From TrEMBL:
<keyword id="KW-1133">Transmembrane helix</keyword>
<keyword id="KW-0653">Protein transport</keyword>
<keyword id="KW-0812">Transmembrane</keyword>
<dbReference type="GO" id="GO:0015031">
    <property type="term" value="P:protein transport"/>
</dbReference>
<dbReference type="GO" id="GO:0016192">
    <property type="term" value="P:vesicle-mediated transport"/>
</dbReference>
<dbReference type="InterPro" id="IPR010989">
    <property type="entry name" value="SNARE"/>
</dbReference>
<protein>
    <submittedName>
        <fullName>Syntaxin-41-like</fullName>
    </submittedName>
</protein>
<feature type="transmembrane region" description="Helical">
    <location>
        <begin position="68"/>
        <end position="85"/>
    </location>
</feature>
<keyword id="KW-0472">Membrane</keyword>
<dbReference type="GO" id="GO:0016020">
    <property type="term" value="C:membrane"/>
</dbReference>
<keyword id="KW-0813">Transport</keyword>
């Protein structure tokens, strides 16, 4: 997720390129993280579906810890994506304002 945050920061920086490489990197990282989260959720569900055993209290404690960690990861991931989307939108708005400002000065 740290790599995704770095890729977002890089994509938001001014550059002379078209940014397609940055977008491909962001998409690849996003796909990878989403896949990991989905696999983790499926593993957790399998663990939860296991029948009762002599270690049921231990299993419940482990499940609760995993569930909390999973939720934290999802929240962090959502925050990273949300921040990037907000910054990208703000940057796009700034570019539009700048473009309008430049046009009005040239008239």
């Amino acid at each position: 997720m740290a790599e995704l945050a770095k890729a977002h920061a890089k994509a938001l920086m001014p550059s002379f390129g078209d940014g397609k490489e940055d977008q491909r990197r962001i998409e690849a990282l996003t796909h990878e993280i989403t896949g990991l989260l989905k696999r983790s959720e499926k593993k957790f569900q399998r663990l939860s579906a296991a029948g009762p055993s002599e270690d049921s209290n231990v299993r419940k404690n482990v499940q609760e810890k995993i569930k909390i960690n999973y939720k934290v990861m999802v929240i962090i991931y959502a925050a990273i994506v949300y921040e990037y989307a907000g910054n990208a939108l703000a940057l796009k708005g700034f570019k539009v304002v700048l473009e309008i400002s430049c046009r009005s000065k040239s008239i």
